[in-house]
Specification:
The chain is of the alpha/beta class and 193 residues long. The chain has helices at residues 15-27, 52-63, 84-94, 106-111, 118-124, 160-168, 179-188, and strands at 2-8, 32-37, 69-72, 99-105, 127-130, 148-150. The protein contains 7 helices and 6 strands; from the N terminus they run βαβαβαβααββαα.
């Protein structure tokens, strides 16, 4: 099976994430999409970041009706700080029967050459890139690489930061979240402070 890995803090997961994941599952040669919940990055402020398992639970709630989209806590079990190249090596060892590919936005592709051991990733894995508004790939040497696939997916500009700030300011952003995620966040009073 060919698995697309969609990494993120998903703080919280929103309909934009699902639109991209579902588009990749339905309109590419990927068989499944694994939403890899990234643990807290020690270099970033944790003030607005929900606990790892709360975010994983939100991803479970958001994806349970999608047969081809699965939540993954694989990075919870790896030593921190972790790098994508290590996660990929771990997955290859744990699931030798699967082929793993990365899913990333055009913004990440532009800085991909700065990732740890990016050449190793590119030699061993395909990368599926979804569009972002106002991202110019003209100066990106990697866009024509045979392992990089630019996918004509819908451009979705919804940010988790906007959602958190809106909740904090008592704005109704219910249409931006899967209903079960909205209910869970509302009932738990997440992001109110």
């Amino acid at each position: 099976m060919k698995i697309g890995l969609y990494f993120g803090t998903f703080n919280p997961i929103h309909v934009g994430h699902l639109i991209i994941a579902n588009h990749m599952a339905e309109h590419s040669d990927l068989d499944e999409i694994w939403m890899v919940v990234t643990p807290h990055n020690p270099l970033k402020k944790k003030a607005t970041l929900l606990d790892d398992y709360q975010r994983l639970n939100l991803v479970h709630l958001a994806t349970e009706d999608y047969l081809k989209i699965k939540p993954s806590d694989i990075e919870f079990k790896l030593s921190q700080p972790n790098y994508t190249v290590n996660t990929l090596a771990h997955l290859k060892e744990k699931y030798p029967q699967h082929e793993f590919a990365l899913i990333m936005g055009e913004d990440n592709l532009k800085s991909f050459h700065k990732w740890k051991n990016y050449e190793v990733i590119l030699n061993n894995h395909e990368i599926y890139v979804y569009p972002r508004i106002s991202q110019d790939l003209e100066n990106t040497q990697l866009k024509n690489h045979p392992k990089i696939h630019l996918i004509n997916a819908p451009v979705v500009e919804i940010s988790s930061t906007f959602i958190r700030n809106s909740i904090k300011n008592n704005k109704n952003i219910q249409p931006l979240l899967p209903s079960k995620v909205w209910d869970y966040i509302s009932n738990s009073n997440f992001y109110k402070k």
